[in-house]
Amino acid sequence: MLWTILILLLFTCTSSADELISARCQSKCLRDLELHYQNDQEQRRNLKHHIIQICKDDATCSACTEPCRETFTDANSCKESACKDTLDNIACEKSCDYLQRIYTEKPGACPKIKNQSNYECTALCHLDGDCPETAKCCSYGCSRQCVLPKGRDPRLLPIPGTISVQERKRKRSIIIRWVMQKLTREQNAANSNLYVVQWRWGLHPDGDSMTEWQTVTVRNKPYAILKHLLSPGRYYQFRVGAVSVHGSLGFSQPSLPFKLSKEARAPSSPRDISLGASKLTPIGLWNQIVQWTPPASDLPIKNYQLSWAVSSASEANAFEEMMRRRATLTTHEKRSLDEEEEAWGIDGRDRHSVIVPSHTTQSELSGLFPNSVYIVEIHASVDSSEGELHGEKGIIFVRTLNATTSDIVKEAPIDETGFDLAVPTASEEDDDANYDNNIDIQTPFFDGELQTSVNWINSRACSPEKKTFVVTAKRGTCREYQFNQHSDTPIQEMRVDECSATIRGLTFDCDYTLEIREAGDSKVIITTTFSTKPCDATPAHGAIPCLSLATPVFCIVHATVSCHWVRDRGITADTVIGYRAALSSPVRDDTNITILPPQTREVHYENLVPSTMYTLQIQPITNRGMGKALSTNFVTHARILDENVIERFPGGEIIELPLEASSISLLPLSTSVLLILLAGLL
After folding, report:
1. Is residue 232 pLDDT above 80, yes or no?
2. Mean per-residue pLDDT for 598-603?
3. Which is it for strands 286-293 and 271-280: parallel, antiparallel or unpaired?
4. CA 57 centroid distance within chain
5. Cα–Cα distances in angstroms (integers) from residue 533 to residues 234, 541, 550, 645, in the given order
6. Are 661 and 612 contained in the same domain?
7. Which one, of 90, 72, 73, lies nearest residue 32 by Cα?
8. InterPro entries recorded for this chain (predicted)?
C-alpha cells in the first residue's frame, strides 16, 4: 500500500491596528517635543494649548508621528515605508524602533495559571501587540493566549469616567466630555496625554445589536466635538481610552445610548433617472434599461422598488412639460408644481414591480409592448428605529417603438465561463438599417489619460444647420478586479457644437454606453456602445505607466480577501478621522459597512460567496465630512479547498501540533494551523 501525504500550511497573519499602541507612539513624539522646549518658557505656554499644531509644523515631531499612523511589527519595513518621504529620517527611524518595542511588550505582567493542562496547544498570538487593547500575549505550556495583565503601573493614566454626550445647537453636532480623576501632579502637567474616542451605533439602543467599536477621533483635551458625523435615526455609544507615553489601562465603560433630536427622514427621490439601452426580443417585446443615481439619505439604503404600468402619450407629454417648466421657475413658483407632481403615480393601476438591491443603480424592464407608453416609478427604502421608511418617488416615462424584424436583437450565447460572448446586433451588421446610428468611434487610446474620439458626421442628425449636441458616456460593466485605473466618473456629459467629440477620463477594461441628443431635447437620437481595453493592451502615445495608474484600491483574493488602499496625499493626515468601507454583491440585498480608524488602510473579508463579483467602495471620513470615494471590483474563487480537496483525499483530518514542534512558531502569526490530509492509494 502506497500512502500519499499532502501537507498544507495555512497562515493567518493579520495584525490589526491597535489604537492604543498608535496613540502611545504619538504621545511619545509629543513628549519629546515637550522635552525639547523644556527650557523655553514662552514655547511651553504655547504647547499647553497648541501642541498638536506645533508638532505638525515641526519637522522632527511630524516625522516622528509618521510611523504611528501605520501598523508595523517590523522596524525595517517601517523605516523603508514610512520614512522615505519625511524631512527628518533619524526621528522617523527612532519612532519605528519605539513602535516595534511597544508592540512587542505592553505594560503589566502575565498572571500565573494554576492548571495549565486546560489550555490546548494553540498559538493565538506571538507578540503583545497581536492582542486587543491592553491584553498581553502570555505563554502557558505549549499554548500562547491573550490575557489581561496583573498589576498596575502607577505611571499609567486612570481610566476615564463619567462620559457625557450633549447635542449642540448646530445640527448633527455633539460634544463629548469625560472626567479624569486622581491624576498625579506630573500627569496633570503633561501636554502629551492623548484620549482615544470610539463609538458604536445601531438602530436600537441595545448595545448587543450595535456595530463593533470604531475609533472616531484622538484628542489631547478631556472633550471632543464631532461635527456632521452623526446621522439621525441611529443610537450611539461612546467610550474613551487615556494614553500616555507609558501606555494605557484601557477603555472606559460605554456611555448611555445617545440619539440626535433630529429624526431620520425618508430618502429623497432617486436622482438623474434616465433610460439606457433598449432591445427588441425575439418574441417582439421590448426590454428597457432604467438607471439612476442614489438619493440623499440619512440611513443606509436597504433596496429600491421599481414599478411600471401602462400610460398614455398625453400623460407623458404633460409630465415632461411640467418638468421643463420646473427647470425655469423660482423656488416660490415651484411649490404649486410640487403639489401638481404628486398627482402623477401608478397607484390603483395594474402594475409590475421589482425589488432592486441597494448596490445596483439600474434595472431592466422586460416584456414591454411595442408602440406603447409606460410610466415608471422608483423609490428607495431604509430601515430605521421606527421601522421601514419609504422614500420619495421618482418618475420617468418610457416610449417603445414599433417592432420590426431589423430591430430584433440576437441573444448572445452563454459562455461556459459565465461571461457573455459578444454577438453583432442587427444594427451593427447593417448600418443602413438604422441610419441614425452611423457613428464612428476611434479605438480608445492613452495620451496622458484614457480617451477616445467620436464623430457622427455621416449621420442624418448632422446637418449644415448649426446645432448643439449633448454627448453622454455612461460606464457599465468593468473588469476592475484587475489592476486598473479608475476615473471615478460613471457618467460623463459634455456639450459640443460640432458633430464630433473627445471623451476623456475613461477607465481601462470597461464597457460604455454612448448617447447623443440635441440640447433642449430629451430624446436620444444616437446610441451605441464601445469598450476600453486593459491597460497593457491599450494603444498609447508613448509608454503607459500601468503600475502607477493602478487603482488606489486593490484586493488580493485567496480563501479570504484582503483589500488595501493608499492614502490621498491631498488630505492632510490629521484631518482624516477614519475610512468607510462598503462591500456589496449582487447575491445579497444588504451592504457590509465598516468604519475603520485613520491609520488602517486595509480590510479583510471571510466567508464570501464563491465565484461572485463584489464591489468595494472606500471613502475617507474627515473632520469636514466625507471625502472622495474610490471603488474596485473583485471576484471570489470557487470553493475548492472546502468541497473538493477533502473529497479527493478521504480520511483527511486536522492536527494541531505543539508550538515547539515547528520552527514556524517564530513567525509573528496570529494563528498557525497544520492541515494534514492523508489519502490511501492501492
Report:
1. yes
2. 79
3. antiparallel
4. 31
5. 44, 15, 14, 36
6. no
7. 90
8. Anosmin-1 (IPR042447), Elafin-like_sf (IPR036645), FN3_dom (IPR003961), FN3_sf (IPR036116), Ig-like_fold (IPR013783), WAP_dom (IPR008197)
